[in-house]
Amino acid sequence: MPKNQTPVYYSDYLRLDKLLGAQQPHSSRYGDEAHDEMLFIIVHQVYELWFKQVLHELRSIYREFNQPKLDDKALYLVAHRLRRILTIQDLMNDQVGVIETMTPQEFLEFRDILVPASGFQSVQFKEMEIILGLTRGKRIAFDQQSFFNRLNAEDRAYLEELEQQPSLFDRVDDWLARMPFLQFEDFSFWEVYQQAVQKSLDQDEKIIRENATDDEQLQAELQGLQANRDNFAALFDNERYIELQKDDRVRLSQRAMLSALFITQYREEPAFNLAWQVITSLAEMDEKLTIWRYKHSMMVQRMLGTKIGTGGSSGHDYLRRTTEQNRVFKDFFAMSTYLLPKSTLPDLPASVRQALGFYFRD
Ligand code: HEM
């Protein structure tokens, strides 16, 4: 690494003049400064800085997925950067407690002068959502409107352009669907897994029939088991799977879902280990973002009760609904429906195990 030519001074390097000069409460324009407005500004700014770092990581992860091939080195980098995002998300989730040290009454001292600014206009937050794969049709609207109506022309054009690009979700789907081992020589994961599922469900039925104490209980349990059989049948049947996608019950392509399942079930196989870490981290990222949404929505209820937001949404009610609806990697959670216990998993043929392992030569 080259040595620096000129001495560096701490505050110049960090541009602290700009950073620390950027907290300018508006309440002082209208009378006495509201003490808590400084906290409100700093907490938002700190979030925006972390959003910036998360976007920096997400864009680099996206670039890797955007390559025609994702080799092990690239996958390692992706896993490493995803872990960094998860650590930042923990911090962001904990940070909700800092803004909660402000009481609702203290907030009311300056709330009205913020209108119509709103979190809806956090371009970086919306950019994170869009890069991840929260498309227009998937996110919930507020009162039949879109947050796009709250943006200025420049921000709106920027995010609309971004929406036209394939998302990280799309790229992850492509990557999983490309996974070569679903069909390997004469081994078909689909067939082998289907037989194992059949065996496991038949075993469940036997246990239900042997242990039922009365007919009503028996019928109820058999009905539950049939629902399970239907779920599995849809996984293996192309047409039924497409129906699930149309009903918005699943978003991943069928091939990607099966690959994710294969990787998750056999994650101890060396070639699957990193891929499994990536899948798990994407699920965790979705979970942590949902936790942030939930904490933010609870904080908003505490601050505003049932008052509407400065951006015109129903406030707490809208935000609470985003925790249910605005999810991207939900399929990695739904996948558990299809998992089998390890003890009933079919053994992989030697040729597949050989291909999935790492070997050192003497
Ligand atoms: C007193 C504190 C806060 C209150 C009362 C509040 C209130 C609200 C409300 C009511 C909304 C819904 C949109 C609207 O109608 O305006 C919203 C959205 C949002 N807020 Fe906050 N907020 C607070 C703090 C924060 C903080 C610290 C952040 C961090 C950046 C933040 C980020 C956001 C984002 C990103 C949205 C858009 C969420 C989405 O559309 O899913 N808010 N906020």
TrEMBL record:
Reported function: Heme-dependent dioxygenase that catalyzes the oxidative cleavage of the L-tryptophan (L-Trp) pyrrole ring and converts L-tryptophan to N-formyl-L-kynurenine. Catalyzes the oxidative cleavage of the indole moiety.
Record Pfam families: Trp_dioxygenase
Family under the similarity heading: Belongs to the tryptophan 2,3-dioxygenase family.
Comment on bound cofactor: Binds 1 heme group per subunit.
Protein name as annotated: Tryptophan 2,3-dioxygenase
One of the GO BP terms on file: L-tryptophan catabolic process to kynurenine
EC number of the protein: 1.13.11.11
Keywords: Dioxygenase, Heme, Iron, Metal-binding, Oxidoreductase, Tryptophan catabolism
UniProt: heme binding residues: H296
GO MF annotation: an example: heme binding
InterPro entries: Trp/Indoleamine_2_3_dOase-like, Trp_2_3_dOase
Oligomeric form and interacting partners: Homotetramer.
Domain of life: Bacteria
Residues holding substrate: F40, I41, I42, V43, H44, R111, T310
CC cofactor: heme
Pathway: Amino-acid degradation; L-tryptophan degradation via kynurenine pathway; L-kynurenine from L-tryptophan: step 1/2
Catalytic activity: L-tryptophan + O2 = N-formyl-L-kynurenine
